[in-house]
Amino acid sequence: MLWKPRNLDGEQGWKGMAVLIRYWRWIAGILVIFAFASLLLTKNKADGATPSGQYETLIVDRGLISQTVATSGSVRPLVTVQVGSQLSGQVAELFADFNSEVAKGDLVARIDPQTFQTRVEAARAEKAVATASLTARRADLRRAGAFVAQRKSDLDRYQSLGEDAGISAIEMDAIRAQYSAAVADLDAARAQVENAKATVVQRTASLQQAEVDLERTQIRSPIDGVVILRSVDVGQTVAASLSAPVLFEIAQDLSSIQIEADVNEADIGSVSKGDQVSFTVDAYPGRKFFGSVQTVRLAPNELQNVVTYTVIIHAENPGRVLYPGMTATLEIITGQREDALRIPNTAARFEPANTAALLAESDGGNRRRGGDGGGRIAALTEQLNLTDGQQRELQAKMRELFANSGSNRGGGRPGNGDRSKRINSILRSVLTNDQWQEYQAGQKDRPRPKTIWVLDEDGKISPRRVRLGIADGSHTEIVDGGLNVGDAVIIRENAPRS
To answer: Please, are residues 50 and 58 in contact by the beta-carbon 8 Å criterion?
Structure first.
């Protein structure tokens, strides 16, 4: 039996049923809207933000904070050697290929040695000729020496006999001349011997050079490592007339690698030698690798007015799974706290619209605020030895910055992050390069004063002066100040309902 609406009978009851069927889509739509609104309300509560009338808050807690600098770089071997040829010629043999492991001194290739072997034989023959010539010249020297001795004996004998010798003065002069000529021949023989010796030395050097060239036809590995590049094939001719052609690239033991990463100048001040690094590569998306900062190179890299510095990271390569050329996505850990008192970053950036009035109501609020940056300038003067002109310029620019910040309370007011950037920009324009580097070095891990706003149990907001430490993507460390675990810090001010 069909259902019939209560209190209706006959034709009127069925007409009412038809109306309900006609508008069922509208009724279902209204139910969906109510369900969606309920879901949004549940999600907001799950996010952890607790709305309390005009303000939303989160709770101060303790936990791990890791301050990192994100960058990327290429995986490189610790040492890469390009093996080339000092000789021109045809590649006769190859003894290594891609991924071949080689030891220092191992033969990896050979240039056709025939031409160089011929040069060695020719040089060896020339040396033999020079050696024989030296022997002949030494014999001539001995002959000249004997002839001088004979002439000297004749001259001495005739001179001792005097007039009893029975020779004329002309004959005596001839004997003296013969002795002098023999002495000259002896000197000439000595010179020829020295010349022959020099020729032997020259031919010996030519032979050694030819032998060195012959040895260079055998291309050997200069280090222990792995062949990562082979640029030639058997039968290919290499020409070494202007520069040594590269035949192989050999990477030293790939169980350790290095990464060359470019870090922006805004972050380089927080990076130091020894900082721990974690990184991933696309080849192993679910695996993390670890290393440490080895060197921060001082040479800047400038591209399109963007200045970066090269940071060298040393890392182990277990199983040699990291290949040269891979792109590594890195996080350089510049600071870490295990059980830090922390607040959400949104709380560190929050300031209420009526900040000045609220600070005036709290004791000493205006004194703590430091509206013109006078305390900061005094500290900088002591730290960096600012000149009088620098102090006046900073005072004027800081006063202008705070005045403009105070006049923008209608909604376009910059947050704390923007103000810090503007202060850094002012300092960079006033300080010298040396002063700026010293300032950056002093800022690393230095606690920063800040006013945090807390919602009390009675629903009123109050400022708490604290000193901030390191920060990560979600939390900021509280070094000291008037905050405790469980305090409700304000993260957002809701617009008043009309």
So the answer is: yes
The pLDDT assigned to 51 comes to: 47
Mean pLDDT of 98-105: 92
Q: Give first-to-last CA distance, the chain, whole Å.
A: 55
pTM over 0.85: no
Rounded CA gap, 61 and 69, in Å? 24
Q: Where are the domains of the chain?
A: 54-62+342-493, 80-112+218-251, 114-216
Q: By the 8 A CB rule, do 134 and 200 touch? A: yes
Contacts of 267 (CB under 8 A, 6+ apart): 69, 71
Contact 491, 57 (CB under 8 A): yes
Contact 401, 342 (CB under 8 A): no
Q: Distance between CA 26 and CA 319 in Å, rounded?
A: 65
3-state secondary structure (DSSP) of residue 148: helix
Other C-beta atoms within 10 Å of 105: how many? 10
Q: Which of 64-73, 241-250, 403-412, 487-496 has the highest mean pLDDT?
A: 64-73
SS3 96: coil
Question: Look-up: residue for tokens 């990477």?
Answer: 251
Residues 6+ apart with CB under 8 A from 38: none
The fraction of the chain above a pLDDT of 70, given in percent, is 79
Task: For the domain covering 80-112+218-251, report its CATH number.
Answer: 2.40.50.100
- Tell me the mean pLDDT in the region 174-203: 92
pLDDT band with cut points at 50, 70 and 90 for residue 162: low
Collapsing DSSP states into helix, strand and coil, what is residue 354?
coil
- pLDDT higher than 60, residue 158: yes
Which among 191, 194, 205, 190 is positioned nearest to 127, based on CA atoms?
205
Both tokens assigned to 84:
């080339």
Model confidence over 250-270: pLDDT tens digits? 998 888 999 999 999 888 888
8-state DSSP, 2: -
Number of H helices, E strands in the chain: 11, 20
Tell me 252's DSSP state.
E
Q: Which of 50-54, 175-179, 262-266, 373-377 has the highest mean pLDDT?
A: 262-266
Q: Is 368 left (phi over 0), alpha (psi -120 to 50) or beta?
A: alpha
CA 428/CA 421 separation, integer angstroms? 10
